[in-house]
Amino acid sequence: MDLQYHEKITRIALGKFFDEPALMQVIAANFSQDDFWNLIGKPHLHFDDEIPASQAYVAGLRARITAVMTEPETDVGAAQRRVFGLLTHTVQDFYAHSNYVDLWLASLNGDSPPAPDTIPPLDDRLLAHPDLHTGTFRLWRDIIYYIPGLKHVARWVYIPPRSHEAMHLDNPARGEKFPYALAAAVRRTRWEYLRAADAIAGIGGDAALRRFRGYC
């Protein structure tokens, strides 16, 4: 998803939980997932290619959020916010880089699509659906779709099926499905915050939760 929408999603989902400087730390970490080397060599950071690899990465980040609480001489709140920011980027990309939205709309059996904010972010039926898949990104193949002057011609000539370019919902230009990807990402981001907050408070109480949120 384009960075401006990552920020929008994160602010909508988390703005009431973090103070502004702390929220900016989360957003900065979210943005860092899109640096050059992460984009070309680490598809699991963006839910591209294989879903299990991305799921394992997210699970590791969840564990890291609480693990840093036991490390000496660590600015725990800042460390937690950085890890959480990385996590938010990856889970937000899931809805933009997979066919989750397509499967959910298809499950409505032809009924008129409801408001985007009704899409469930973690529908067990869809997460276990045999047709759930993400797009693939190959630098040697897909870089052409990002070169000014060539990208429009390349898109007109050929887009490989199931490629990132064919599937992504990274911005409103992708059409009517984008608002569903954005809404699902907002709800998932808030769900991940509540999960992290419960884990942090369960170990360190309210003081630890305030530290995570930037209010101490």
Describe the structure.
The chain has one domain. The protein has helices spanning 3-14, 20-32, 36-41, 51-67, 76-97, 100-106, 124-127, 139-142, 151-157, 164-167, 178-213. It has eleven helices and no strands. The mean pLDDT is 94. The radius of gyration is 18 Å and the shape is globular. 61% of the residues lie in helices and 0% in strands. The chain has 216 residues and is mainly α.
Essential attributes:
single chain, 216 residues, mainly alpha, 0% strand, globular
Question: Quick summary of this structure?
Answer:
This protein has 216 residues and is mainly α. The protein has helices at residues 3-14, 20-32, 36-41, 51-67, 76-97, 100-106, 124-127, 139-142, 151-157, 164-167, 178-213. It has one domain (3-133, 176-213).
Query: Over all CA atoms, what is the radius of gyration?
Result: 18 Å
Series of secondary-structure elements, N-terminal to C-terminal: HHHHHHHHHHH
What is the terminal-to-terminal distance? 32 Å
Sequence stretches where pLDDT stays below 50 over 5 or more residues:
none
How many structural units, i.e. domains? Answer: 1
Mean pLDDT: 94
Give a count of the beta strands, DSSP E runs of length 2 or more: 0
Q: Name the beta content range.
A: under 5%
What's the helical proportion of residues? Answer: 55-70%
Shape descriptor reads: globular
Structural class: mainly alpha
Sketch the major β-sheet: none
Count of discrete alpha- or pi-helical segments spanning 4 or more residues: 11
